[in-house]
Amino acid sequence: MKQLVKAGITTVVNDLGASIFNYALSLKLLQVTGSAMGYGTSLIIGPVVGLFVAPWVGNTVDSYQRKHVALIAEGVLILTLIMYFFVFELFHTNILISAIIVVCLNNITARFFTISYLSSTPQIVTSEHIQKLNSIESTAATVSSILAPAIAGFLFGIMDFKWMIVLQIITETLTLILTIATHFDSNPIDKTKKKIQNLNIFKSLNKYPMVLFFLIVTMCLNITSTALVIGMPYVVIHILKYSTTISGNIEGVYSVGALIGGIIITMINLKSTFGFIRSMYWATSTQLLILGLMLFTLPRYVLFIFTFFEFVIGVLDAMSQPPMFTYIQKTVPERDLGKVNTSMYTAAQILTPIAVFIFSVVFSKINYQMIFFINGVVSLLLTFLLLEIVGKGINKNE
């Protein structure tokens, strides 16, 4: 139980500190540059940097003791932030350049820490507590995502930005101390892998066909789920002419659903993790179809429909992620967890920018009700094709 508490607090402190800093940095860039591009710097750089360093992250995490990798990553991040604090005033006229450098280093060190910590779950808790730890960490991350924007906005209005840097230094130092205090069992190391032999990070998934299969299904459903992410604010603001505040409030309902879903999955014990993941895929695609049908048949209740389905998707996402991590951590040998988790993280980000671009164009050209309906049908057909036809042979071999 102490291990669960330490890991949960570590996740809250780390995620909350990083999120507050990222929001505050975005606000500072918007204030100085007046550019939306500056505001979205971290969103653009994150996936690019993640893809670039992914091969080194996975191999490093599996080639050394993961606690040591996590501690070194945190130490480097703290030193980077300390340097940024002292040189911030010097780069005040070129804040965008300095911000890009810091965001890159933040993303690199954060990726090493996150993958190391996630891959260390079997070394932190016993097998029967793996799902509970994943659920606690997921819920903690959700709580952080709810609190961070409000805290960052409030602090940004009452203090100079350089003190926001100090705040993250404090939270990262606390994360370092908590990680030191958390017991990690030694993880197995393949000493023959002294250097990276292949930069194809997805090659490691070939040994685990069911994990690869689940990844493919997840990537496909992530694409169709992007319709709501792009379509909801577009419809509410540009078509229905409501304010950005209304759109933001509807988006906020997702976090409420995610918090509730996280609490639910923390409290239950799954008899079949594999079966539960399949059920979540069906639930996700089915609700996308129902969303499309309701927008067609109940056009007067668009705001209510969007609010309801933001909540539902939040619940489903929060309930599906911890079991997926649990399945991976119980199926994949500990020596490969770093590479597999890195592959999953990277793959989840690769198609998102493409999906965002596609739906941004489509919503400006085609009736939104038709888009949501077709998207729901495609999502359900993809789920049926992948789970019941393509994946049937894989299921038998599992």
From TrEMBL:
InterPro entries in UniProt: MFS, MFS_dom, MFS_trans_sf
Listed transmembrane segments: 36-57, 69-88, 94-118, 139-159, 165-184, 211-240, 252-270, 340-364, 370-390
Source organism, top-level taxon: Bacteria
UniProt topology in membrane: Multi-pass membrane protein
PROSITE patterns: MFS (PS50850)
Localization, UniProt: Cell membrane
Domain Major facilitator superfamily (MFS) profile: 211-398
UniProt keyword annotations, A-Z: Cell membrane, Membrane, Transmembrane, Transmembrane helix, Transport
GO MF entries: transmembrane transporter activity
Alphabetical list of PANTHER family matching this protein: INTEGRAL MEMBRANE EFFLUX PROTEIN-RELATED, MAJOR FACILITATOR SUPERFAMILY ASSOCIATED DOMAIN-CONTAINING PROTEIN
Name of this protein: Macrolide-efflux protein
Protein species of origin: Companilactobacillus paralimentarius DSM 13238 = JCM 10415
Lineage, highest ranks first: Bacteria, Bacillati, Bacillota, Bacilli, Lactobacillales
